[in-house]
Amino acid sequence: MDTKPLPKQPTIDLVEKYHKQFLGKEPYVVTEKAVINAFKAIPENKDLAGILAKCVVLNSLYSTQVWGIYNMALHIRDLNIDKKLQACSSEVVHEIPRLEMKDGKVRNFYSFATKYCHFHSMDDYPMYDYHVSKLLVHYQIMKPELSGVGAQCRPSGLS
């Protein structure tokens, strides 16, 4: 049984409090800095080795669970996403996650895609993952008028 207290309604003060707590935890800060440094060092998505390096760093440090990371790097290179990223297009977030696996099945790595875009332009692309999903569901229960907000944030069928 989950014994963690339910999250409080978000306020500016609460967000600032949690941001300070985050900044006080060196492993989180250093991990984020490592990913930021990788994306700053390799800003474009044309060179396969550079894309692969960013994918490996992100997948390893943010536990995005992308299987076939080399194929994901090939996929990103083939999408030619740099102009879309510069234009802050939401299209790119929906193009990256769909990856065909060796068995022919298509997997959707939405969390990876949001994080990949986020580290290219942190102010323009929010990250989405399991933790965000749980909070959105909680806030929808707290405020029923927000019903559907989470569904709008993440297309159905994407993991």
What is the CA–CA distance across the termini? Answer: 24 Å
Unreliable segments (pLDDT under 50, ≥5 consecutive)?
150-159
Task: Please state the structural category.
Answer: mainly alpha
Side by side, the strands of the main sheet go: 1-2
Number of helices: 9
Gross morphology is globular
Number of strands: 2
What's the overall average pLDDT, rounded?
Answer: 86
- The proportion of residues in beta strands is under 5%
Rg calculated over all Cα atoms: 17 Å
**Share of helix, binned:** 55-70%
Q: Major sheet: size, sense and barrel closure?
A: 2 strands, antiparallel
Give the topology string: H per helix, E per strand.
Answer: HHHHHHEEHHH
Fold and architecture overview:
With 159 residues, the protein is mostly helical. The protein has a domain at 23-125. 58% of the residues lie in helices and 4% in strands. The protein has helices at 12-23, 26-41, 48-61, 69-79, 82-86, 91-95, 110-120, 130-142, 149-153, and strands spanning 98-100, 106-108. It has a two-stranded antiparallel ribbon with strand order 1-2. Helix 2 packs antiparallel against helix 3 (48-61) and helix 3 (48-61) crosses helix 4. It starts with 11 loop residues before the first helix and ends in a 6-residue tail after the last helix. The model is unreliable at 150-159 (pLDDT under 50).
